[in-house]
């Protein structure tokens, strides 16, 4: 007998003696030894998981030491895998008390017969003891310690609990620990449903996790799997037919990446409750994956640094179904993919106009068929302009909203009062950021900060017949409606007008109530809409707020919005019919006060030749490139003198579009004086 075998023989004889002591031959002498065992901690940290509404895994995080160790219970893995594991590693697992004298004796006999150690005598409980203490197995002292811990574990834990510890801590190569982490890494799926071949590989890996990794050692991995399958067939765990099929199944060649779906919202959930190990969200995984792919495709051909945000919700329940914070979470540089743009405050452009019209309907200021003037108008120094600079004269409120004209909606906002509009946003559950302390008329045209999620909240209120219900993304955080912002009829009228808009080019007509918007300087392109069940918002722009020349909500965001609704379901949910109290009349049939709108304090210009600033609008928030501001005016007689905060910055200027530089952050008052001494001014916020 060689020296090494001699040592091994004495090792196993000693282990056999100790196991016999533990099984009762000399029980009284070892009870105290077992009872006084200092056990290692069994409370190991496990990976935090984020799941969708149906329990599907969206994202998983490593534990502090960078290992993937996912929580799992025996009933959460394939029964065939558990049966294979016990048949191969410890067939008397449910009968012994931590050590198996029969297995130790067999190992000793095989070692004598073959002249080398053929099989180990460790039970699953002993392996758990070794894993918890991260101890070796080659020395007698190490084996004795494992036996002692195993015997103590068996007295304090159930077999199911011990099996769970093995399933969570067994090594599977690299930084993989536990059957669930291994199943996701090698098979890209949960271990609840494994093929016999997959189960056999997971049984074989922990014995030599690095040597048997299928991505680096296919031959070794294949042979190890074959041995497990043969033992499983011999034990009756699988049939001979199943074994033949399993032997032909290819091994995985690569280690798969763990799911990283909805990464921004997953991070948000962790920040919201960093202690919780499982976060169940309202998201729908299939729709989230599809929408993330759409977001990537939508910005693929856009200029560098352009990002996107998409939010989809069920407006009847308030559940957020999709939340895409950027096109690529890992994108570095100008795209800043790590920034969750669903939470970024941006200028909403024209997308707030529907709320103003709905409030006007409720307060008896207008009706969809009321005539309203689209002509030059000023409110003190503020003279709003339409986006294209064209005036269309008198037209119905319906046409004004569908064409997204600026002057009619500012007339209505002036009659309502900006403070009342801000209060309606607050009642809708929408958080906002104002450029100053006091809201001005420019807020109706986008002179306010709002997030894509907030805009979704607003349109969900309109879709819910004017009743606000906070959107939520945690599955257990459902909420009821909290405020009535618009009447049923006013909300329906707004939706009916918006559903009459033509769809983007290339899309079939569908009754989708939607609105587009473009912020000052082409910094933000928006589209938001709803049908009978869902509401969605699309934002496209640069995270740093710099312009995207030529970007319009109707061209960029609206097609993406329509694609989102196609991905929600092929057939949309119809918008509701009008409530019985809705007044559906032509202009001529309306009560006389409703036939034409007359503004409260806006007055049509009496000095048509006076200069008027067309850009920037009064109250706008501006982000400047190279500290240069482009200003535009119409009318007036040149040459013009430009002043910034009362100080002349350009004189003798004959062009109606010029550039001013040197403005400091904060409020600035810009003025222009023409050759006849007539002037115009606006106040803006430089960010």
UniProtKB/TrEMBL annotation:
Its EC number is 2.4.99.28. Residues 309-520 form the Penicillin-binding protein transpeptidase domain. Residues 63-232 form the Glycosyl transferase family domain. It catalyses: [GlcNAc-(1->4)-Mur2Ac(oyl-L-Ala-gamma-D-Glu-L-Lys-D-Ala-D-Ala)](n)-di-trans,octa-cis-undecaprenyl diphosphate + beta-D-GlcNAc-(1->4)-Mur2Ac(oyl-L-Ala-gamma-D-Glu-L-Lys-D-Ala-D-Ala)-di-trans,octa-cis-undecaprenyl diphosphate = [GlcNAc-(1->4)-Mur2Ac(oyl-L-Ala-gamma-D-Glu-L-Lys-D-Ala-D-Ala)](n+1)-di-trans,octa-cis-undecaprenyl diphosphate + di-trans,octa-cis-undecaprenyl diphosphate + H(+). InterPro entries: Beta-lactam/transpept-like (IPR012338), Glyco_trans_51 (IPR001264), Glycosyltr_51/Transpeptidase (IPR050396), Lysozyme-like_dom_sf (IPR023346), PBP_1c (IPR011815), PBP_C (IPR009647), PBP_transglycosylase (IPR036950), PCN-bd_Tpept (IPR001460). Pathway: Cell wall biogenesis; peptidoglycan biosynthesis. Transmembrane segments: none annotated. It is an enzyme of class 2 (transferase). This is peptidoglycan glycosyltransferase. It comes from Roseovarius phycicola. The lineage of its organism: Bacteria, Pseudomonadati, Pseudomonadota, Alphaproteobacteria, Rhodobacterales. The gene is pbpC.
